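Comment thread on ticket #2218

A.B. wrote:
> Attaching the input chain for the structure job we discussed in standup.
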Amino acid sequence: MSSILVVSETATGKSIQMLGLVAKFKCKTLIVVPSEAIVPEMGVDKLFLYKSGKAQPVSVVTGIRTEAAVQIVDGIKQGDTVIVSGTLQLRMGLPVVLDNVN
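C.D. wrote:
> Ran it. Output below, let me know if you need it in another format.
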């Protein structure tokens, strides 16, 4: 058995720490992208995907955000190739050459 610190957010938006409690929980797979991959456009967060050699914009719903990373709640699926640099110059259908794939 291992111990972790659980921080929970209440319905009022306040964070609480739960120390000394025992709990069972299930975690679902999270999709997290670097913050610089997000392109805000007229109030909508977008990402550019690499599809068949071209940039394909997609609207996404974001969740938890830090300075370095953003959780994607909806809009892409596991296995999609997200373009994370040079996104401000991209447009739909623009040919893209990938330098590095992680």
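A.B. wrote:
> Thanks. Noting for the ticket: The CA atoms of residues 62 and 98 lie 25 Å apart.
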